[in-house]
Every structure is written in structure tokens, then in C-alpha cells.
Amino acid sequence: MRTVSTPSPALILPPRSSPGVLNGSSTSSSTFGTETIAMVHTPPTSLTHPQRSLRQPRDQQGAPIDILPDHAFLQIFTHLPTNQLCRCARVCRRWYNLAWDPRLWRTIRLTGDVLHVDRALRVLTRRLCQDTPNVCLTLETVVVSGCRRLTDRGLYTVAQCCPELRRLEVAGCYNVSNEAVFEVVSRCPNLEHLDVSGCSKVTCISLTRDVSVKLSPLHGQQISIRFLDMTDCFALEDEGLHTIAAHCTQLTHLYLRRCVRLTDEGLRFLVIYCPSVRELSVSDCRFISDFGLREIAKLEGRLRYLSIAHCGRITDVGIRYIAKYCNRLRYLNARGCEGLTDHGIEHLAKNCLKLKSLDIGKCPLVSDAGLEQLALNSFNLKRLSLKSCESITGRGLQVVAANCFDLQLLNVQDCDVPLEALRFVKRHCKRCVIEHTNPAFF
User: Fold this and answer.
1) What digits encode the pLDDT tens for the residues 225-279?
2) What does R_g of the chain's alpha carbons equal in angstroms?
3) How far apart (Å, rounded) are the C-alpha atoms in residues 106 and 361?
4) Is the domain of 86 the same as that of 13?
5) Where is the composition biased (Low complexity) (predicted)?
């Protein structure tokens, strides 16, 4: 008969009190510095709490919670994080069997700077693979964002044991490299959501060399990633973006915030290979210019979300391309684009009639004339940020308030607007939240 075991909760959480004591009960764990090293425990042997005597009176033998049916327990357990689920598995044999129900293990979510996450993933996947040796068919999501001790070893474990993985988030895990990401992508063909933001060693997304050779020349169509977040991947260059685009042709959401080495050439590759992109962010990519927006405009009506914040080389020319061809745009963040003027806002207002959110904060050349054009055409506008727009006055705000009745958020912080204009906005847009720096208005 095979003996099953459950990971200690000490694997998931650092010790809160003295080593070897958890919530007043002894555990089989050892310590190494500030981290509790994981030990694997056998399941509880009793049907109730192990310290409860079977000779106690009937009214003292069971807790009220014990009368709940199994499906009620499962419903409760679905709301527990990974570490608490491991704790529940050590209460009694019934809870052990329920806590390791495969339906509860579609997601592993781990957090903590001191967590030995590589070992945690190895022990958890080993337990989940007991019924199907070496393969975990239930696990679809792994979230280990912020676990700075994650290394390639942990991702190799996921790649080898979780072929049905659909979502992986390793944001802020700066020890992860390209090779481990390639391994996950190659072994998990159903992976659709990948967040490697803050992973400074990741420079592109591709299949491993062995897989690429077998699938060439059609291997670019094999990666099914649709959502990719590479924010703060500082080493990403145009060549890396070219590789990503060629392999991830089904991309619909791509975030490249603060990928400071990218240029307009990288965006050209992106549009060629990934025509289905709906959301794109290149905020703080200082080399992106109007030529890059001309390439992005080739996405046409498919583009819904665009962030070009603090791209200082963008002017009205680039905005005109977006306004002309991407007429279904819903969200535009152009904060800090100091070359943007009222003419660009006019083109945007007259062509993107479905625009719902617009951020043109810190655009000193945008004035009341641009706001008037926006108010007369963008009736669906719900969110508008004018933070630090030096040329905006109360007249422009009143025109916006008189025409955009559905406005829900207005940011006029650090704008020189009179108190009467803010009150006018409040009267006409009753559901609008106004963010301001006027101490007289509340």
C-alpha cells in the first residue's frame, strides 16, 4: 500500500514564533536562517482531531463544523490560498482527503521574499502527480510573483510536471532566465497568459532549440500565448521583440512598459507578425516616435488600448495616424507627450468617437480649444486626466462637463482652475469623482 504525504505549511510560510512550533502545536520542521525548510508529513491517522479521545461523551466528540457535508467543505476550501490549504490538510484524515481534492488544485499561489519557492513547487507538484505519475493534469495556474528566490530550477519543475498550464506569473523574480522560460513555453502548449515583468534577465520568448528544429519552419505558430507582460524587462531589444512576434503570433495583449531599448523598428516586426493585438503599452520607451505610431496604426480597428505615456518623441503627426486608422480605440494614455497639441486632440476627437478614457496630463500645449473639440465629439468619455496641464482653464472644463454627462473621473490636479468651474462640473456630472488640489473644494 502506497503512503501519501502532505507538504508542511512551514513550506509555504516563514515561522511566526519559535522554530518547530506552529499555532501552539509541534511540527516536524527545521530552520535555516530566517526560513523554515520544508518537511513532508504523512496524513493524520485519526478520523477526527488526533488529540481527541474516542471515549468522550457524544456531545463533546465532534465540533459543529464536522456535520458539514463534503461539498460544503470543498466550497469553503476553494477560497483558501495555497498555504492555508496545506494547513487544513493536516487537521484530520477527512480534511486531508478533501484538501487534496484535484478540483482545488487548479491554482498554486505563493508569495514571500524568504520562501524557498523552488522546493515548494517541487514538493507540491510531486504530491499532485501521485495519481498520474510525473504529470499533473489539473494544475492550470501558477502565481509566484514577488518570490525573489525563484530560480530556473523552479520553472523547470513546472515545465516538466504541468503540461496543462495556462497561466504563469513570475513578476519580480529577477533570477529567472531565458532558458527556463523557453522550457515552460515549449512543454506547456496551452500557455496563454505569461507575466515576466521585472525579470531583467528575460530578453525574448521562444521555443527551445530542440523543439524549434522539429517544428521549423512553422514553429512560430505553435506558441499560444495571448497575454504577455514584459514590463521592466530592461534588456529587451528590437531583435528580442522580433523573436517574440515571430513565435507568439496570437498575441492580443502586450505590455512593454519601460523596455527602454526598444525602437520603432521593433514595432514594425510586431505589427507584421501579430495583427491581432488589441492592447499595447510602450510607456516610457523613449526611442519610440511618430514612425512607431505609424506602424501601430496598421493594427487599424483591432486596437482598443494604447499607452504611449512619456514617449517624448511623439507629436501630433503620430496621433493623427492613430486617429485616422484606429477608430475603435477606447483607451489612450498620452501623459507626458509634450509634443501633443490641440490639433492632435482634434483629430483624435473627430475620429475616435468610442473613446472612453483619455490621459493627456503633463501636455503643456493642450488648451481649452482642444477640450472643446473633445467635448463636442467624445460623448462616451468616462475618464479624463488633465493633471499638470498648464494651459487648461475653467472654460474648457465647463464645456466638457456640459457635454460629457457620463464622465466618472476627472483629474485636474496641479491645474489652475477656479472653484466655480469645479462646482459646475459637479452639478452637471453628478457621478464624477474629481481629483484636484484646490483646498477650498470638497
Assistant:
1) 999 999 999 999 999 999 999 999 999 999 999 999 999 999 999 999 999 999 9
2) 27
3) 42
4) yes
5) 18-31
What distance in Å separates the CA atoms of residue 139 and residue 135, rounded to the nearest whole number?
Answer: 10
Identify whether residues 96 and 10 lie together within a single domain.
Answer: yes
Tell me, yes or no, whether 153 and 116 share the same domain. Answer: yes
With 0.70 as the threshold, say if the pTM is over it.
Answer: yes
Residue 312's nearest CA partner among 280, 281, 286, 332 is 286
Asked, for residue 30, whether it belongs to a domain, the answer is yes
| Chain segment 362-397, per-residue pLDDT in tens | 999 999 999 999 999 999 999 999 999 999 999 999
* 379 inside domain: no
Say how many domains are in the chain: 2
Q: Could you tell me if 78 and 118 lie in one domain? A: no
CA distance 285 to 263: 8
Same domain? 97 vs 117: no
Residue 227 counted as domain residue: no
The residue segments making up the domain with residue 162 are 106-202
The residue behind cell 463636442 is 376
Partners of 167 in beta bridges: 141, 193
